[in-house]
Automatic annotation (TrEMBL):
Domain Response regulatory: 3-119
Organism annotation: Actinomadura nitritigenes
InterPro entries assigned: CheY-like_superfamily (IPR011006), Sig_transdc_resp-reg_C-effctor (IPR016032), Sig_transdc_resp-reg_receiver (IPR001789), Tscrpt_reg_LuxR_C (IPR000792), WalR-like (IPR039420)
Protein's name according to its UniProt entry: Response regulator transcription factor
PROSITE patterns: HTH_LUXR_1 (PS00622), HTH_LUXR_2 (PS50043), RESPONSE_REGULATORY (PS50110)
CDD domains in UniProt: LuxR_C_like
Domain of life of the native organism: Bacteria
Residues where 4-aspartylphosphate is found: 54
Entry keyword set: DNA-binding, Phosphoprotein
Pfam family, one: GerE
Domain HTH luxR-type intervals: 137-199
Length: 201
């Protein structure tokens, strides 16, 4: 029997997934949570073999929850289930040692098969998402431009970023301008969105 933890902040989606998985003779849902920051405690209590995590959850997103889960309980395999297959999410998932990445549009039997595969130590990846990630260009930003843009995305202004990174405010503005230009963005907010969706922030 493969024990499964489900994490999704939409109650209807989570209940539907639990009902579908309960129809499988070798799968049983041992825990359900609606927040990313509840995943680790639930996994410690229920000891699942596989954690099926939504990307967008309050408290902690599914990818951060997967990273924390892998660090604390490396025996628990994780499978990300998402409504939007952004290449950046895939890159973060791989960095978090996620074993599977499927879209919520996948047929139920594909999800069940994916759970079995990650439980057996295999990797599962939505083919369309793999092609999209393959085609995605490499990060054009330098490490320093990335640092500056990440802080700007958090709402920090140039003087604050300068103080935190030990730079001058003018240098920070130059890095932000370079990032906006390289990403063909309208402004720093747009640049941060583009970089985040690509998995560079």
């Amino acid at each position: 029997m493969i024990n499964v933890l489900l994490a999704d902040d939409h109650h209807v989606v989570r209940s539907a997934l639990a009902a579908l998985l309960s129809l499988e003779p070798d799968l049983t849902v041992v825990a359900e949570v609606e927040r990313g920051d509840e995943v680790l405690a639930a996994a410690r209590a229920a000891r699942p073999d596989v954690a099926v995590l939504d990307v967008d959850m309050p408290g902690l997103d599914g990818l951060a929850a997967a990273a924390a889960l892998h660090e604390a309980l490396p025996a628990v395999a994780t499978l990300i289930l998402t409504g939007h297959g952004k290449p950046g999410h895939l890159r973060r998932a791989l960095a978090a040692n996620v074993r599977g990445f499927l879209l919520k549009t996948a047929p139920p039997d594909e999800l069940a098969a994916g759970i079995r595969k990650v439980a057996a130590g295999e990797r599962v990846l939505d083919p369309q998402l793999a092609l999209t990630a393959w085609d995605l260009a490499d990060n054009p930003l330098t490490p320093r431009e990335t640092d500056v843009l990440r802080l700007a995305a958090e709402g920090a202004e140039a003087p604050e970023i300068a103080a935190r990174l030990h730079l001058s405010a003018g240098t920070v503005r130059n890095y932000l301008t370079a990032a906006v230009t390289k990403l063909n963005a309208r402004n720093r907010t747009d640049a941060a969105r583009i970089a985040r969706e690509a998995g560079w922030l």
